[in-house]
Amino acid sequence: MAAAALREQLNALLSSMFASGLVDDQFQQLQMLQDDGGTPGFVAEVVTLFCDDADRIISELAALLEQPVVDFDKVDAYVHQLKGSSASVGAQKVKFTCMQFRQLCQDKNRDGCIMALAVVRNEFYDLRNKFQNMLQLEQQIQAQQ
Amino acid sequence: MAGAASAAAERKVTIRVLLVEDEEIHRVLARALMKAVGGVELDEAGNGAEAVRRVREGGAYDLILADRQMPVMDGHEATRQIRALGVTTPIVGLSSDSLAADVDAFIKAGADDFTPKPLSKEKLNHILAKFNLA
To answer: Pairing mode, if any, of strands B40-45 and B63-67?
Structure first.
């Protein structure tokens, strides 16, 4: 596919990510830091760190919530960490879900936390797919330059 | 690029910032922001205890940015211990929890200011201006 068509596809993907609220202004800031600062690969680095962090934290949360006695302080600490990572990358939907998750944690609502984890996981998987598509398109564009 | 370079040139002196942060994603973002602002020499500590050690060992910083939740020693305790050393360097607390109670806890620990995460170029410029470092 020609570079122009790939670029068009990338722009459409990014527009849909912003329009659907998957990402917010912070993600735009990352793109600007990359473009203005002449640091190619910066967005990819942050996105990869976020995806690795989120994957690990979601696994830890699932394990904690399976325990007979749930340590809600630990759960809260992990959700806080995920909220921070998602805010840094501009993952708006994941961040909002984490905020609701923390409230359930503070209420020590185990069933609510299990449901919140399922929502966080879905939001994250959806975003990760989009990020992966974005990075693939960027690589393809790069390869044609 | 030109903006960052001119800001750094206007400042004339490089400022030394200690970032106290355990998570790589936040450190990567902070590095990029410092680079964009220009004229900043960034030092990093992975937890509060490491930050206290660096300051105690004579690290002369113009600004300390401290996360709250970290392993080994959190940002509140690190701030208290740095102040107990008699260090008056501006300390700005950082956290993604930014309710009044979160801000108060940092200020009571001895921080001069608090900024909600994520750090941005605008927030960093505001901090630098507030402490006459811009």
So the answer is: unpaired
Q: Which of B3, B69, B120 is the closest to A29 by Cβ?
A: B120
* CA of residue B41 relative to chain centroid, distance: 12
Tell whether B14 lies on the interface with A, counting CB pairs under 8 A.
Answer: no
Q: Which among A85, A96, A106, A131 is the top mutation candidate for probing chain B, defined by the most B β-carbons within 10 Å of its own β-carbon?
A: A85
Q: What is the reported pLDDT for B134?
A: 84
* pLDDT tens per residue across span B74-129: 999 999 999 999 999 999 999 998 889 999 999 999 999 999 999 999 999 999 99
Are A33 and B32 inside 8 Å of each other by CB?
yes
Q: Which of A75, A49, A76, A89 is nearest to B117 (CA)?
A: A89
Chain B residues inside the 8 Å CB shell of A81? 23, 69
Residue of A nearest to B32 (CA): A33
Q: What is the pLDDT of residues A19-74, one digit of tens each?
A: 999 999 999 999 999 988 778 899 999 999 999 999 999 999 999 999 999 999 99
Task: Work out the burial of residue B58: count CB atoms within 10 Å of its CB; fewer than 13 is exposed, 13-18 middle, 19 or more buried.
Answer: exposed
Domain ranges of chain B: 2-129
Using a CB-CB distance cutoff of 8 angstroms, which residues of chain A are in contact with residue B117?
A: 84, 87-88
User: ipTM score here?
Assistant: 0.91
Which CATH class, in words, describes the domain spanning A3-144?
A: mainly alpha
Domain B2-129 belongs in CATH node 3.40.50.2300: yes
